[in-house]
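Input (structure):
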């Protein structure tokens, strides 16, 4: 018998190319705000959004030539920080097919990779779902 997913107040489904808009920033800020209010959040990444949690991104982004002395955290570091801060209220999943096709492996250790046909289970486990990155 398959293990049932834990319930979530909100599922954030990141489906598009992450850096063509403010989608990633909006999703991370929304997740943090929900978590700070005690909500349980699941994040599902699909398509190029699976690259947000690639281990190879490291802790910081490449240096900004306009502000060379300032370090900015990578998306993987931001996700790891949220997962470490809210381990009982946040779960982050990545589509296996999209992860493999886009070379997004390996992910940071907290990411659970699942096949795309399991996405409906995530929809069922969530009270509300917000899709980001789909036009």
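Output (sequence):
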């Amino acid at each position: 018998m398959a293990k049932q997913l834990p319930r979530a107040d909100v599922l954030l489904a990141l489906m598009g190319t992450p850096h063509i808009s403010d989608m990633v920033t909006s999703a991370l800020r929304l997740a943090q705000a929900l978590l700070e209010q005690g909500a349980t959040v699941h994040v599902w990444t699909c398509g190029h959004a699976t690259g947000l949690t690639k281990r190879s991104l490291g802790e910081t982004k490449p240096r900004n030539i306009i502000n060379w002395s300032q370090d900015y955290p990578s998306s993987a570091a931001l996700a790891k920080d949220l997962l470490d801060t809210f381990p009982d209220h946040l779960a982050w999943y990545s589509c296996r097919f999209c992860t493999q096709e886009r070379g997004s492996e390996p992910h940071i250790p907290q990411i659970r990779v699942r096949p795309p046909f399991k996405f409906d289970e995530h929809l069922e486990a969530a009270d509300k779902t917000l899709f980001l990155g789909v036009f």
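Notes: The longest strand covers residues 8-14. The beta strands are 8-14, 41-45, 90-95, 112-114, 126-132.
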